[in-house]
Amino acid sequence: METMLRNLFQALGKSHSANRMAKKYGLRFGAARFVAGESIRQAIEAVRKLNEDGRMATLDHLGEFVYSEEEALQSADMCVQTLDAIAQAGVVSNLSLKMTSLGLDSSRELCMRNMRRILDRAREHGNFVRIDMEDYAHCQTSLDIYRELRRDYDNVGIVLQAYLFRTRQDIQDMNGLRANLRLVKGAYKESIEVAYASKKDVDENYKAMIREHMENGNYAAVASHDEAVVSFTKQFAAERGIASDRFEFQMLYGICEEMQKRLVQEGYRVRVYVPYGIDWFGYFMRRLAERPANVWFVLKNLFK
Ligand code: FDA
Questions:
Q1: Is 21 a member of any domain?
Q2: pLDDT exceeds cutoff 60 at 303
């Protein structure tokens, strides 16, 4: 049953027509638990609230299935506007983005131009941009683009996923770049040819990645709600004398709030990933696929 629901949510998240329909009808089915709103103003308000108790943020303007140049330029505009809004409001937040929303699927060159424009604006504001990692099909291109950008920008980071076999090698290859990496388990449905299928293998690989990246003196963003991973990171940092400003924990908006607050109280850096925008459906479906138990939450909201 759980696998069936997981597959269903993953398929719905990828469906163009479901995404298109959802855009028209506004945040529904309890998606507001995971998505901060549809406008920049609502997103900035959500960040302000997080900042009040010491949590930092990373804002993500949601955008899926961008193919035309015009849509990609609009997406880049939204990223620039988000950076401006962060600076104007004086809130503590950086920016996360997906390169497919900047035209990666239609033209690498277009995506690159958009990335440079966004990174230039972030640099003007003294801010940082994180490239989210998408499915396996985009992994190599994303890493190549990251390497190219890293030559000119020190305010850009990327994400590596523990479920991929290739990631341990990627971590080693990145070491020379002094890369600021967000390390995650991985959110997409991948084939057993490229990814670990069992939770145990993913978790083991995840810990090995954290160890290797932090041990090499690199900044790590450990993005997980898994108590075991969080405890492992804390203990590893303490044992190796890694200062608490050399890493941060990241969690998603609306998930494990108590743990987020507790970590801040314990003196750790915590950043919350705050998605916003009208294109909320794909993101919402990925959150449901991660935890099909959330379906009860959706059903409750259907009848509200
Ligand atoms: P795990 O799935 O083992 O969950 C541990 C516990 O966390 C669960 O038992 C539950 O209590 C809670 N939990 C987890 N997910 C939940 C949910 N959806 N709803 C309610 N509770 C939940 N992935 C990717 O492929 N590319 C990326 O760029 C990113 N970026 C990213 C940023 C940030 C800040 C986070 C936290 C995560 C990502 N991810 C991601 C997603 C990541 O790959 C992974 O799918 C989720 O974080 C779930 O895995 P956990 O590590 O939380 O552990």
A1: no
A2: no
How many whole angstroms separate alpha carbon 166 and alpha carbon 172?
10
User: Is residue 178 annotated as a catalytic residue, yes or no?
Assistant: no
Give the pocket of ligand 1 (CB within 6 Å): 132-133, 159, 161, 184-188, 223-226, 250-252, 255-256, 273, 287, 290-291, 294
Give, using CA atoms, the residue closest to atom 50 of ligand 1.
224
What are the structure tokens assigned to 36, written together?
């901060």
**Side-chain-side CA neighbours of residue 15 (13 Å):** 14
> How many structural domains is the chain composed of?
1
Residue 190's domain is classified under what CATH number?
3.20.20.220
pLDDT of 109-130, one tens digit each?
Answer: 999 999 999 999 999 999 999 9
- 299 assigned to some structural domain: no
Is position 287 annotated in a ligand binding site? yes
Give catalytic status of residue 182 as yes or no: yes
Q: Is 200 annotated as a binding residue?
A: no
* Per-residue confidence (pLDDT) for residue 300, from 0 to 100: 62
Q: Residue 200: which domain range?
A: 36-279
Identify whether 265 is part of a domain: yes
CA-nearest of 138, 132, 144, 191 to 163 is: 191
- Looking at the domain assignment, is residue 17 inside a domain? no
Question: Which ipTM was obtained for this model?
Answer: 0.97
Tell me: is residue 304 an annotated ligand-binding position: no
Q: How far apart are CA 223 and CA 301, in angstroms?
A: 28
State pTM to two decimals. 0.93
